[in-house]
From TrEMBL:
Domain ATP-grasp: 107-313
Cofactors that this protein relies on: Mg(2+); Mn(2+)
Keywords: ATP-binding, Ligase, Manganese, Metal-binding, Nucleotide-binding, Purine biosynthesis
Pathway in which the depicted protein is active: Purine metabolism; IMP biosynthesis via de novo pathway; N(1)-(5-phospho-D-ribosyl)glycinamide from 5-phospho-alpha-D-ribose 1-diphosphate: step 2/2
Species of origin: Candidatus Fusicatenibacter intestinigallinarum
PROSITE patterns (UniProt xref): ATP_GRASP (PS50975), GARS (PS00184)
Similarity comment: Belongs to the GARS family.
Name recorded for this polypeptide: Phosphoribosylamine--glycine ligase
NCBIfam families reported for this sequence: purD
Enzyme Commission (EC) number: 6.3.4.13
Reaction catalysed by this enzyme: 5-phospho-beta-D-ribosylamine + glycine + ATP = N(1)-(5-phospho-beta-D-ribosyl)glycinamide + ADP + phosphate + H(+)
Amino acid sequence: MKILVVGSGGREHAIAWKIAQSPRAEKIYCAPGNAGIAEYAECVDISAMDFDGLAAFAKEKEIDLTVIGMDDPLVGGIVDVFEKEGLRVFGPRKNAAILEGSKAFSKDLMKKYQIPTAAYETFSDPDGALNYLETAKFPIVLKADGLALGKGVLICNTLEEAKEGVKTIMLDKKFGSAGNEMVIEEFMTGREVSVLSFVDGKTIKTMSSAQDHKRAGDGDTGLNTGGMGNFSPSPFYTKEIDAFCQKHIYQATVDAMAAEGRPFQGVIFFGLMLTEEGPKVLEYNARFGDPEAQVVLPRMKTDIVDVFEACIDGTLDQVDLQFEDNACVCVVLASDGYPVAYEKGYPIHGLEKFKDADGYYCFHAGTKFKDGEIVTNGGRVLGITALGKNLKEARANAYKAVDWVDFDNKYYRHDIGKAIDEAPEA
Ligand code: AMP
Ligand code: GLY
């Protein structure tokens, strides 16, 4: 099969790598891709938002399957464009990708179908939001309705901070039109878990769990980022919690979307908070997580091309989705200053060390070729990833491999997977 992957980050590198393991994959393309993805795929310089350009390319090259990695094209309706052209594509249609594209939509869906989540109110004008805050309990969480690169969430400890937050989102429009509507929700405490799943419209099969580290600095300090590293599985995600979520959250969400006339085919990423009252949904994403894909896919035994096709064909119930009984840790190497301002274009050294190192992966997030060298080209640069027989071993391996690579302004967190030490057994 000829397969096209759309996207250019560490997630798409992990997806392309996993597709390359499949005996069914003859030729892989990636648009636009990056310097690491180029090892498995021919990278083509078409933007992920150029739907017509991508569809024309897929037709010209007789692509058998296109896999959309990123949220923006999904929310924008790339799948509908491909389907209209008669092309096979993995990912939710626009009317289902709204599960990620609008927080107001997803909160209303959860309320209507009694899927556990934080209590909330939705506002489309700042005055209503400000009035509501006068009598609210703090801390409180403000969320821009639309896509904001994982940065449209403000946790406010006081009324003053929250008023400032309403101004930032709705008046100053710091997150653009994502802030036309806003959700204000109850602050929850507990451990966070990411659970990714494959969905074919009616059947859902979950992948092994993971835990992200969203803040930029050690000890969960600093600004929210796209994710600075993670590990899989989460030792806090027990069989009992899984059983509860399968019934009350995962299948309930798939059924709710179908009942709304928005059948979801693709990956649903459940961002969960394990609260004292039980698991609750923090957010939905309509795609693999980044860097969740980097720690989950190396542990997946099943041929991913078979799973993609089953999701498209509605035959996921016939797939036996399996994961290795091991662990994986990813430490993101970023450019110092991410997520605000940073320099790029620095040569990266040491990448060849991963070539023959079994169980070690260097997924590229922001890299490109320049004058025959691979240089940094983004805030998140590389996802240094390692397997181990358990989480502690995987973490030690990942941090060992962090030292193999070097570039100017290399920055990373030193405490990815610290929570592992607090787990009952890891
Ligand atoms: P989201 O983009 O909705 O996942 O939010 C980003 C991050 O903000 C989450 O990973 C949580 O750490 C935090 N967050 C979001 N909503 C809440 C909430 N209701 N209570 C506490 N923390 C939250
Ligand atoms: N790592 C979080 C996300 O992909 O949204």
